[in-house]
Design brief:
5-stranded mixed beta sheet; Glutaredoxin; single chain; 40% helix
Length: 201
């Protein structure tokens, strides 16, 4: 009888001991996995655009426009404050942006028609001077084009796209919410938007 107990009991004890050991190991593994998961979770600053506190839809109407004083294409500087007392259509562009190229002739025409009547244009662009100068010459820009480093001014105005524009009043306050694309920009300037047919974008 004792022998039967030993024969049956030893395997049961071994199974129980192995089970306890496996449970402990499993528990330790789970604790380590949880620790790894917590360690690899992104910090709040790493969550990307959705958790960012940077404005990305443009400053709203009624906001004082941030100051701009940047190098222009002619080796000088141009500042938004230079236009105090006038409405300013402040356009954000990029020389490698196809929609910006499509908008450029409209801006040239707009500047020529409104020269001296209270509406000024100023462009904030990116990239190198030579590339921007070629674009300005190609389209005959008569208004100042200033160059921002990376997105420094775009960040201040809360939008990281091109082409976009803000209409700024004579007092330096943004008059209307951001205009996006050709239609939005021309609407800010009070210009009729061309009617598009079938295949045009």
């Amino acid at each position: 009888m004792l022998l039967q107990l030993i024969v049956v009991g030893v395997p049961v004890i071994v199974v129980l001991a192995v089970g306890i050991h496996v449970s402990r190991q499993h528990g330790r593994i789970l604790i380590r996995v949880e620790a790894l998961e917590q360690h690899t979770q992104p910090r709040p600053s790493e969550h990307g655009l959705t958790a960012s506190r940077i404005e990305r839809n443009g400053l709203k109407a009624g906001t004082l426009a941030p100051p701009i004083d940047l190098p222009d294409l002619n080796g000088g500087h141009a500042a938004l404050a230079d236009f105090r007392g006038r409405h300013v259509l402040l356009v954000f562009s990029d020389p490698r942006c196809a929609p910006c190229d499509a908008l450029a002739p409209r801006l040239t025409d707009l500047e020529l028609r409104h020269r001296g009547d209270g509406l000024a244009l100023m462009m904030v662009s990116r990239g190198d001077v030579a590339e921007n100068r070629r674009k300005a010459d190609q389209h005959g820009f008569g208004f100042p084009v200033v160059l921002q480093r990376r997105w420094e001014v775009s960040k201040e105005f809360g939008i990281f796209a091109t082409p976009v524009a803000f209409l700024i009043g004579p007092d330096g306050v943004i008059v209307r919410d951001v205009g996006i694309g050709m239609d939005g920009i021309m609407a800010l300037a009070g210009e009729p938007v061309p009617v598009r047919t079938g295949g045009e974008n």
